[in-house]
Amino acid sequence: MATVKVLQIVGYKNSGKTTVTLQLLKLAKSRGKIISTIKHHGHGGALNMPDANTDSMQHFDQGAECSIAYGNGVIQMHQRSEDATLEDLIALAGHENPDFILVEGFKEAQYEKIVLLHSEDDWITLQKLEHIQLVVSPKVVELDNVRMILQNDSKQLANWFINWMDGDSHESV
């Protein structure tokens, strides 16, 4: 796998991580970029699985460690791994040689981050994260040495992201 840039979008539950991830994904696609995404399912419990009657799910339910279905240009994979790391997931997501990978969640990982705040109180704990590049907040928060933009300023977010995408001095794997 070639070197690929990774950008994390992190914050507490309902802070807008998926909304921002989708905005960045749409912007990147409009600029001709190839993107993979990884989402941490932090809601507890197992992921919702496809209908148990599909052949690939029957394979998985009967003990296949990995079940892959392919059709109409789409690959669907279910794989068991009790201890998958973000690096393992990045390796999977990097299979198609994306320009970069957007990671939603995995706060403690060591990649460049956009941190989303609900309130100033969130910053008390989230400022301890490493590699913070940008903070997005619903109102102005005074931060030391970290750029902050307002949550509803999609133009500034887009400009920042375009600079991040086109830059070459970012963490990658």
Automatic annotation (TrEMBL):
<dbReference type="InterPro" id="IPR052539">
    <property type="entry name" value="MGD_biosynthesis_adapter"/>
</dbReference>
<protein>
    <submittedName>
        <fullName>Molybdopterin-guanine dinucleotide biosynthesis protein B</fullName>
    </submittedName>
</protein>
<feature type="domain" description="Molybdopterin-guanine dinucleotide biosynthesis protein B (MobB)">
    <location>
        <begin position="6"/>
        <end position="136"/>
    </location>
</feature>
<dbReference type="Pfam" id="PF03205">
    <property type="entry name" value="MobB"/>
</dbReference>
<dbReference type="GO" id="GO:0006777">
    <property type="term" value="P:Mo-molybdopterin cofactor biosynthetic process"/>
</dbReference>
<dbReference type="InterPro" id="IPR027417">
    <property type="entry name" value="P-loop_NTPase"/>
</dbReference>
<dbReference type="InterPro" id="IPR004435">
    <property type="entry name" value="MobB_dom"/>
</dbReference>
<dbReference type="GO" id="GO:0005525">
    <property type="term" value="F:GTP binding"/>
</dbReference>
